Amino acid sequence: MNPYLKTFVIVTALLTPTLAAPLLAETPKADMAMQKVNPQKISINTATAAELQMLKGIGEAKAKAIVEYREANGKFSSLEELTKVKGIGAKFLEKNAELLTL
């Protein structure tokens, strides 16, 4: 085998994983970008307080209030029923309309 060809094959074999590593490392960032573009909906009838806190404008207290309302009154029949929970208004529904589901 030609010594130059042998050297080329060895160098290529050694550099390929080094050059491929950054490409493979970028995959999780791409997945996160897809989640921002297509976020998963949150069910107001089954979500935990921690899950509800992922919504815009919801902190620990409001998340607990939603769960307590649901436990006291049963499942929500509409998204608008959320406005019966103290501290939740129409603006909240507007901001989170694409993220909410029953």
Automatic annotation (TrEMBL):
Q: Which UniProt keywords apply?
A: Signal
Task: Tell me if Signal is a UniProt keyword of this record.
Answer: yes
Q: Which one Pfam family would you cite for this protein?
A: HHH_3
Q: Where is the Helix-hairpin-helix DNA-binding motif class domain?
A: 50-69, 80-99
In terms of superkingdom, the source organism counts as Bacteria
Q: Gene3D superfamilies attached here?
A: AF1531-like domain (1.10.150.280)
Q: What is this protein called?
A: Competence protein ComEA
What biological-process GO terms show up in the record? Answer: DNA repair; protein secretion by the type II secretion system
Q: Which residues form a coiled coil?
A: none
Signal peptide positions on this chain: 1-20
Supply the source organism for this entry: Shewanella fodinae
Name the InterPro entries for this protein: Competence_ComEA_HhH (IPR004509), Endo/Exo/Phosphatase_dom_1 (IPR051675), Hlx-hairpin-Hlx_DNA-bd_motif (IPR003583), RuvA_2-like (IPR010994)
Residue ranges annotated as transmembrane are none
GO cellular component labels: type II protein secretion system complex
- Gene Ontology MF: a single term: DNA binding
